[in-house]
Design brief:
This protein has three helices and no strands. Keywords: Membrane, Transmembrane, Transmembrane helix.
């Protein structure tokens, strides 16, 4: 059996920053929905502030998408052993499951083909 890496659950140093960027991005998307509702309501009421609500909604949406994109892009470019865990609800793989997987799908024979 291969030696298991002790880094499998260790987050990268910047993991908190990237998670924070993602949370702020999702929060900004929710604020965007509120601003869009305010813009529609303002336009329906014939108020002159409708354009400003629309501009605010567009700007916040751009910032939200940028935050989400950048956090995902940086996270995906990290090495696999330091990457932010994508699914915290997924159970850990046991040593037996890892060994079975390695034997079934990673075991190369002399010809270079998997068994």
């Amino acid at each position: 059996m291969t030696e298991r890496s002790n880094t499998r659950r260790r987050p990268a140093e910047h993991a908190r920053l990237l998670k924070g960027m993602g949370f702020v991005g999702y929060g900004a998307l929710m604020v965007t929905l509120v601003l869009v509702a305010a813009a529609v309501g303002s336009a329906a009421g014939g108020h002159s502030a409708a354009i400003w609500w629309t501009v605010a909604a567009v700007l916040v949406a751009i910032v939200a998408v940028a935050l989400l994109f950048v956090s995902r892009y940086i996270s995906a470019r990290q090495p696999g052993d330091t990457r932010i865990q994508q699914d915290p609800l997924q159970p850990e793989v046991t040593a037996e499951e890892e060994e079975h997987y390695e034997e079934m799908y990673r075991g190369d024979d002399d010809t270079g083909h998997t068994r």
